[in-house]
Each structure stands twice: as C-alpha cells, then as structure tokens.
Prior knowledge:
By secondary structure, the chain is an alpha/beta fold. The protein folds into 3 domains: about 5-90, Winged helix-like DNA-binding domain superfamily/Winged helix DNA-binding domain (Arc Repressor Mutant, subunit A, Orthogonal Bundle); about 95-160 and about 270-300, D-Maltodextrin-Binding Protein, domain 2; about 165-265, D-Maltodextrin-Binding Protein, domain 2 (3-Layer(aba) Sandwich). About 45% of the residues lie in helices and about 20% in strands. The chain has helices spanning about 5-15, 20-25, 30-45, 60-90, 100-105, 110-120, 135-140, 200-210, 225-235, 280-300, 310-315, and strands spanning about 50, 55-60, 95-100, 125-130, 145-150, 155-170, 180-185, 195, 220-225, 240-245, 255-260, 265-275. Strands 3, 4, 5, 6, 7, 8, 9, 10, 11 and 12 form a 10-stranded mixed β-sheet that branches. Strands 1-2 form a two-stranded antiparallel sheet. A hairpin with a 4-residue loop joins strand 1 and strand 2. Helix 1 packs across helix 2 and helix 1 packs across helix 4 (about 60-90). The longest helix has 28 residues, at about 60-90. About 30% of the residues are buried.
Amino acid sequence: MNINLRQLQAFVGVYRLGSLTRAAEQMFITQPAASVMIRQLEESIGVRLFDRTTRSLRPTAAAHESIARAERILREFDQLAGGFEDVARRRRGSLVLGATPAVAASLVPPALLEFRKRWPAIDVTIHDLAPEDLVGSVVDETVELSFGTPHGPSAEIDLAPLLNDRMCLICPRNAPLARRRQIAWSEIAGHPSVTVKKGSGIRAIIDETMSRLGLRFEPAYEVSYLATALSLTQHGLGVSVLPSYLTRYFHSGQLSAIRLVDPVVTRNLSIVTRKGASLSPAAEGFVEILRSQIGTDARAAAAPRAPARSRRARA
Length: 315
C-alpha cells in the first residue's frame, strides 16, 4: 500500500466540500489532477471511496469510516510541520553545551544572556568540563558542542577556531609592572607567581616554555582553578601567566595583562563538534552570538585608552 499526503488531502477536501472542483481549487491544483489523486488512492487501498455520478461524488461507507482518521493524520502532520518551523526559527528547542570552567565562567554567561533575550523558549543546559572531557562529551553526544582547548586532535571531531589569544603576565593594575607593554619570559622568575596545578593545559604551556629557555619555574602558589589564580593575583600575592582574555571577564579594570615575549606564545580556544554533524539552529545561534561578542570585546580591548586628563575633561 502506497499512500501519500497529497492523496489524503484530496480525499478529505472532496469529502468535506462535496466537489472535486472545489477541492482542487483549495489545493491549488487542477480538477483532473485531483481526480487522479482520488483514483490512485482508491487503487492503492483497494476500496472505492466515492460513487461517481455525472454531477457529483458521493462518499461510500468506506469513506465515512475513514474520514476521521485521515483528518487526524493531516492534523498531526500540520503539527509536525509547525514543530519543525518552530525549531528552525528558534521558537522552541533545546541546547546542551559544554565548556571548560574558565570559558563557562567568562565567555558563556554574557553570550547566554543575549541568547535568552532573543530566544527565551529554548532550554539551555551547560556542562562544566575538564579539558580532557571536551572531545569525549561531544563524541558520545552528552553535549552537542563544547568550547575550550582539547587535549590533542581526534578523528571523530571537528575543531573550529573561537579565540586566539597570547599568553600574558597578569598583575594588579596599580603594580609597577602594569606600566610595561611587554615582558620577557625570563623575567617571570624574578616575581612571586601564582599558577594552576600540573595537568592543566595552561600549566603545560608554562612548563614547556620555561624548560625550552632553560629556566626553573617555581610558583609561590599552585591552585586548581584559573579564577582562584586571578583572585590571588588581584590581591597582590603573585603574578599569573594566563591568556589575556580572562582579564576582561575576571576582576575587570583591576588587572593588567602584559604581553610575554621572547618567545611569543599563543593559546587557541576552539569549538568542538562531532565530525560531519550539523548543528541545530539553537547551537548555530549561540555560536553566532559568542563570536560576535568575542569580536566586540577584542576590539574594545585593543582600542587605545584616552589620556587621564582627557577623561577628566569629559567628566
């Protein structure tokens, strides 16, 4: 049995309107096309649905018995089509994303705030993930996508660049170091430092860079979270070596990021997705907002600051 939707629409239209011509007009097709659909439906089910006269089509007992079910199928199809449209237009749906704690605490909240303003009916779930879980959570579909710096590549995922940032020395804004535009890695040893424990991606970058330079890195404090390191730095307990973007979200205005040189070391944040998988409209919308906000923040951070006298004059 091979029944299609248009045949059901023709059947219901003819049954309710009592006219092949009017049913064809309602479907925006010709009367012969509607007649063919009715005939094909009858041939497919092996039952006559209408007794034909020269002036009209009269429903048979089989048509009377089938009309309610046919109308229910059409209603359910309309609901399904409406649901597809709601998802496509982000009027409904869900989004499950993952991010490393630093990204979840810095980049995600302002993007989520804007996302909720635009599409309040979409349910959003956020998973805090360790860097080693960024890939696995996407592959096993615990999350649709994740944000951070994965531990190495994988054949099962695609990586798209989200943010390229350079490693900087972070210090309080009122510290003498804050007046400098750049500082060499070799100078870090001359200051008490705060860093994250071994096993983190950032600590690996620091240890590897210092090792290449033949220098020992002996931090005053080792902590588990970047936010803790920044808080200790903000209170003057030691400088931190971190990507500069973090200072725009943690203790903004209280910390300065000084470029580390000799060598220049960068660190990428990526969007992790399952290879070959299409993102949902909700995920596409979130990524669009996140990229836009990162670009706006980066331009604002790069803009030259007005001299203090000019700021007082405007005030």
